[in-house]
Amino acid sequence: MTAVGLIGAGAMGAFHGESLARRIFGARLAAVADPAPGVADRLAASLDCPFATTDPSQVLADPEIDAVVIAAPARAHAGLVEAAAHAGKAVFCEKPMAIALADADRAIAAADAAGVPLQIGFQRRFDRGFRAARDQVLSGGVGEPQLLRSLTRDPDLEVEPAKIPAWTVFFETLIHDFDALRWLNPWAEAVEVYAVADALVRPDWKERGLLDTAVVLVRFDNGAIATAEASFRAVYGYDVRAEVFGSAGMATVGDIRESSMTYSGAEGVVSRGSQSNLDLFHDAYVAEIADFVACVRTGATPRSTGEDARAALAIALAAIRSVETGGPVRLAAVEDV
Amino acid sequence: MTAVGLIGAGAMGAFHGESLARRIFGARLAAVADPAPGVADRLAASLDCPFATTDPSQVLADPEIDAVVIAAPARAHAGLVEAAAHAGKAVFCEKPMAIALADADRAIAAADAAGVPLQIGFQRRFDRGFRAARDQVLSGGVGEPQLLRSLTRDPDLEVEPAKIPAWTVFFETLIHDFDALRWLNPWAEAVEVYAVADALVRPDWKERGLLDTAVVLVRFDNGAIATAEASFRAVYGYDVRAEVFGSAGMATVGDIRESSMTYSGAEGVVSRGSQSNLDLFHDAYVAEIADFVACVRTGATPRSTGEDARAALAIALAAIRSVETGGPVRLAAVEDV
Amino acid sequence: MTAVGLIGAGAMGAFHGESLARRIFGARLAAVADPAPGVADRLAASLDCPFATTDPSQVLADPEIDAVVIAAPARAHAGLVEAAAHAGKAVFCEKPMAIALADADRAIAAADAAGVPLQIGFQRRFDRGFRAARDQVLSGGVGEPQLLRSLTRDPDLEVEPAKIPAWTVFFETLIHDFDALRWLNPWAEAVEVYAVADALVRPDWKERGLLDTAVVLVRFDNGAIATAEASFRAVYGYDVRAEVFGSAGMATVGDIRESSMTYSGAEGVVSRGSQSNLDLFHDAYVAEIADFVACVRTGATPRSTGEDARAALAIALAAIRSVETGGPVRLAAVEDV
Amino acid sequence: MTAVGLIGAGAMGAFHGESLARRIFGARLAAVADPAPGVADRLAASLDCPFATTDPSQVLADPEIDAVVIAAPARAHAGLVEAAAHAGKAVFCEKPMAIALADADRAIAAADAAGVPLQIGFQRRFDRGFRAARDQVLSGGVGEPQLLRSLTRDPDLEVEPAKIPAWTVFFETLIHDFDALRWLNPWAEAVEVYAVADALVRPDWKERGLLDTAVVLVRFDNGAIATAEASFRAVYGYDVRAEVFGSAGMATVGDIRESSMTYSGAEGVVSRGSQSNLDLFHDAYVAEIADFVACVRTGATPRSTGEDARAALAIALAAIRSVETGGPVRLAAVEDV
What we know:
The structure is a homotetramer. Chain A is α/β, with parallel strands linked by helices. The first copy, chain A, has 11 helices and 15 strands.
């Protein structure tokens, strides 16, 4: 039984906690930490977890705990990864692992030094459809990737400008797409980025600096041209799709339909859309934690690593600088900061 | 220029008249006959057709006319085919060509004796999707057909029990499905039929003998088992589909979507359905008449013949007797009538 | 922790055993019984289950065990249900619960007498798409059901005529479709059945009495006409679909695609099909056992009951008699046996 | 009968010639001009057209001719439009109408001065799916457009670098997408463009200056962000799609399937793709010429005008300059040339 501590008990953390407590064989939820008073207590109680605290360091200090799942706010991620690695814990960290390259480097170095697995919450890599697309690329069915697309549209991100950092659309949303594009173009690296972003969902947020809509064009060193696209509000549901087109074919992935049921009525042929990421990616979220637990047990390298997190972050940083400067930004340029 | 006379100027006849006058190269609409006062006049005038009459025999008597398209009420079909053949005209006749086998035999014999082409309005044979399904069968992609299905659902057949013959669902609607099933199972013939029919759309019609919903199970001599299904009212649109499943694969055909446009809104992902046969089968209706005109010119055998009409009729008659007797009916049995 | 014993460790039993041992919170796999030497031992060992036996009665005799999952051969089901109920165990029994109505009645009576939950393995009732279709019916979206269809095609049922009872296609395969049709037409009961069956996949089996292809027409007392269809071999994968068409709309369910990934190559746009029931219905199989465990704990009535099993069986028996007699069979007639 | 002369008898010109001669009521093909020896003769002969010439000016000089369809090489378009307008002919001109803004302006001015209709071959505006998408936008179903996408992938453009101008992917291919994006975002105009292009299909062409793959990001003055994407080789067929996403919903359009037939075999569920634009857009190509003929007759303004051609050209020119300079280019900047 792998003992796992959860750090951060928001919606995503709670789901991972439930997976550890109830959905994944060979794991147990050994502790829950969340700084908000009562939050960890309530989740721990509901999941028969023996220990709850407002202080993550208590989880890290517990010698019985083998691993931690970090689902805290993004800005705390890198420091927690570092601390957990120093404490000898295997680490699963939600995306983004860091929002500065130097922090990412320190987190990676800490995990390396401690010899612990470090896995990042890019759950699309564990989704059945995305995996099939990747397999199609790896098997040569797509040939050399030439054009890629990845998009994320949230049904309605409940955000308050005061609480949401300005660049959230890049750091939290598009980071998934940047990872997906890299993963579906496996023999190349991004070299240049051009990005446009705006406040189209809530124009009144623009002056407060919050952008809710963005398109990013990413150039790869094999010539492939990719677009990533995000919106904070799609009235029809949670929409995540990807497409990789190459010299030998195309793989597309993503189906917003909630189930295989289709209703035909006076309005036409209708399929309801998925309304949340926990619905659309339910199995992938479970699978990534199950795989993490297996890596902890076997010592295998996770399928999404700290290096992957860093590479996606670099694209995000280049995209942000592109929005700031109005021109394309080479990946090399964000390394100089 | 093949000169074609139109007999019957209802909705289907008017469409064929327009095709002859405006859509098909090498044909001209030379005459329109319809017994209802003014109907032929109006259609002929709108299509610059030089001759209109309430008397079909005037069309048949015209030596300038090479061929006729018969779109009169079903009960008049067989007699008109016979008369037209006797007059030496090539004949396109809407389905059903006849509603009694003896009439069908006489019509076929008349066309044979006159040496004129006789084509029946089974337009599904000219639909792109249905043709692709048939090609898949003929090429061996489906293997030996084992299970078939064909269905027809009308958006809302505007019928008055007083005007509609009781067995319309078999003679006018399912006759298409019977033909489609035969055509998609090309190396076999129907041997036995079991049918159930009811007045589910308008239960009050039942006592007046009008059935609006039916399912027919057809056994073929290669063992294949087929179902044909019809309803007079589908709220979502005009629904025509077929499926042929065999030892090597399956071909399905039929897409009720009006266009390739899909709208995603709060209610889900929506495609509007086609609302009429003239919409869904527009191209097939034009193609069958164009092909008929080509047969008239070249002497080629039509793709749907009098024999096909007779074979579909025999299945319809067996289905009707099955409803009457409550048991399965062998095709051989309806030959004895 | 609900302690559950497994009786029968074939493919389906092994899956349920895994669910009990590893996938379902609040359950534990307490015993495995299988008469084949070594089979129970191996499964129990792989799932850390403390007890294995070749004798099911040892499981029933264990006072620590709260419930049993019966996944033995069909002919043993009813007797095992009865015995388990007598032993005071809650019972989950794979379909068919019985292959004779008297046996079904005894099983139901035993469970009633013991006051234990009795659930049948009609997992489609737990499938997301099927549930959405049912919800659409219950909410009135479909209106009064008029035409229904349910089909099951196995990729390639590995069967040996010597081992497979003649009427397997009805008792084991179509029993699912009979249940689905009843469930999707919730305000009606079947009244008459007409069936056709043949050996089209393996014609050489026919003389040995094994039928592999069947179509069944079921009449309901609300007038609805349903077809159920089965084949033992579909080269493209495991194909389970249903359609319910009514006065207000249509719900269709079933998607044979393995994932949301579509590959477009020189051969066209391609989606791979699911190759097994354990793949296509993975979540439904887990959900039905989870729900059973919840019923054991809460005393709630299962979503598929012994009465449902009996009603589906009656349709199967009527279908078999229809094949034997060549005519339609009223449900009332099979009650007289 | 509107008498129409055809200028340019290549693949597209020949199709329009056939439409004028055989598919469109009320039009006749009165002349064919093509500078290549014998080409006009052969097409005219096959279509029973009375006049063929290698000299377009003979067509323009013919007082019997009401209108011309220009399907010559792109570089000749603007001059021919101007000459035809001066000769008082109504003009249908294939895209691009011009490849320099000054030429476009002269062509528009000539048509205005002559008071003749000027229609451009943006046939997507006449495609059923694209029209439905536009209707969805106009009716408010999409709300304010925020994110758009349009793409064109040719199955295998047979091109010789020596014969193909360097910027063909922008002038000839993406010009369709630029028009589609403008048409689907009807209350806005493009303000800035960023483009990336490469020779990924034939890397050896790159040094000869021929680009075969491109992605263009277009900013509109309502904030909408659009991407246009092109490739000269898609192994699966001719792929044209569009998506418009807004505050109230999304419309997608484009279906590469050749027909409604789907084949399921061992390789999965397969739909063949359309292999040519003349196949996928057959009806739209006929409809645009039919509409042009109607405009000639009625004096109505065409649905795609010279101003539309100019606006799409401006985006193409900005895209080309973006490739040349490596940075974004404002539309205003290309006006200064």
